[in-house]
């Protein structure tokens, strides 16, 4: 069992939900704080940002890999340059505000300097899919000794194996893996949520989650489906206004989406119940007694008659000898005269001689 913040990840428990604010604050501390407040109002466990500087993250010749109709900036460097204004003191202020709002503060680091000043501010590290093959950076984060949540977008299992080996060898003991598709946005046919079960099969001792880039619908289908498939860490971009152009607003959820997700999840949790062990529940006791079958006489029998297949049938209720014991009663004799349709009881049978 892994613990993130104040929540244990358990098979039937609530998921740990990360509201990925990213850089939807657009360089405004006031807007960043409002997004934190809305994330808390919606029920998120964490409000997460992204900490980078354009010149350490991308070359000036890095091409776009997102939908240019939604975000027209053609260079990664130019896009990142728009939103890299926050410095260490700004993130410390946001972390303090998260503490005040009683929500975990997270920010994905993209360079060593960010790892350095973010370490005391966060309960664990989230590593972006794009850094899954960045072995020196993985080692740097692992050396901190905190749990890691690792997105696996656009990766092979061999690459995930290498990332896990690197993290563990460098000192990270706990890792959760998130299924992710690195398309912005991700059309529903490309979500491939069944890969969640593939990760569970490949890494049965690791908590598995989902980082979602699909467009949210009213039913929050992608997140609820991911939960039903076993994802216990759920991350989705978060905004105060889904109609805003550019960046990550266009595929983000808002506070109302998040509230609807928790409402649907409460219903799902009610349907799932508290335990995976198959057993009768107390409200099924009447059905066990009356809807099951008993061995019933198909004809009247005088005392001393041996029971045969022809003399017996099986009918409701289940208050007599169960057909489970059909073979055990064959050949036994009845102690008294019995009418047809009599529900056979053990006391109706003569004691076996030893």
Structure description:
By secondary structure, the protein is α/β, with parallel strands linked by helices. It is built from twelve helices and twelve strands. The strands form three sheets. It has an eight-stranded parallel beta sheet. Strand 8 (175-180), helix 8 (195-202) and strand 9 form a beta-alpha-beta unit. Helix 9 packs parallel to helix 10 (255-272). The radius of gyration is 30 Å and the shape is elongated. The model has no long low-confidence stretch (mean pLDDT 94).
In short:
The chain has 354 residues and is an alpha/beta fold. The chain is 31% helix and 16% strand.
Residue-averaged pLDDT, rounded? 94
The percentage of residues in β strands lies in: 15-25%
Category by helix and strand content: alpha/beta
Order of helices and strands: EEEHEHHHEHEHEHEHEHEHHEEH
Number of helical segments? 12
Quickly give the CATH architecture of the largest domain. Alpha-Beta Barrel
The CATH class designation of the largest domain is: Alpha Beta
Determine the CATH topology of the largest domain. Answer: TIM Barrel
Q: Give the terminus-to-terminus CA distance.
A: 54 Å
Largest sheet composition: 8 strands, parallel
Strand order of the largest sheet: 5-4-3-10-9-8-7-6
Helix proportion: 25-40%
**CATH level-four homologous superfamily name of the largest domain:** Aldolase class I
Number of strands: 12
Number of domains: 2
Q: What shape does the CA trace take?
A: elongated
Indicate the low-confidence ranges by residue numbers.
none
CA-based gyration radius = 30 Å
């Amino acid at each position: 069992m892994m613990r993130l913040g104040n929540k244990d990840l358990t098979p039937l428990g609530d998921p740990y939900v990360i509201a990925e604010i990213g850089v939807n604050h657009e360089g405004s501390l006031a807007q960043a704080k409002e997004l934190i407040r809305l994330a808390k109002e919606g029920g998120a466990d964490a409000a997460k940002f992204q900490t980078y500087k354009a010149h350490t993250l991308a070359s000036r010749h890095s091409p776009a890999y997102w939908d240019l109709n939604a975000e027209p900036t053609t260079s990664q460097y130019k896009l990142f340059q728009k939103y890299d204004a926050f410095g260490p003191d700004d993130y410390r202020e946001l972390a303090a505000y998260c503490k005040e709002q009683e929500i975990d503060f997270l920010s994905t680091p993209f360079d060593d300097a960010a790892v350095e000043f973010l370490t005391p501010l966060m309960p664990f590290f989230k590593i972006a899919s794009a850094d899954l093959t960045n072995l020196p950076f993985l080692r740097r984060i692992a050396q901190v000794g905190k749990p890691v949540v690792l997105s696996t977008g656009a990766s092979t299992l061999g690459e995930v194996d290498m990332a896990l080996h690197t993290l563990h060898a460098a000192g990270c003991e706990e890792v959760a893996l998130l299924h992710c598709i690195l398309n912005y946005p991700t059309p529903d046919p490309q979500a491939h949520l069944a890969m969640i079960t593939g990760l569970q099969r490949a890494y049965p001792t690791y908590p598995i989650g989902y980082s979602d880039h699909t467009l949210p619908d009213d039913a929050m289908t992608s997140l609820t489906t991911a939960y039903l498939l076993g994802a216990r860490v759920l991350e989705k971009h978060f905004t105060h206004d889904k109609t805003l152009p550019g960046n990550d607003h266009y595929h983000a959820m808002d506070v109302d989406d998040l509230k609807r997700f928790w409402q649907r999840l409460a219903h799902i949790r009610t349907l799932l119940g508290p335990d995976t062990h198959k057993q009768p529940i107390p409200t099924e006791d009447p059905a066990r007694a009356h809807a099951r079958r008993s061995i019933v006489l198909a004809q009247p029998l005088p005392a001393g008659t041996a029971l045969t297949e022809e003399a017996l049938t099986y009918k409701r209720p289940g208050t007599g000898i169960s057909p489970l014991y059909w073979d055990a009663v064959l050949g036994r004799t009845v102690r008294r005269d019995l009418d047809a349709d009599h529900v056979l009881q053990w006391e109706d049978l003569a004691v076996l001689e030893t």
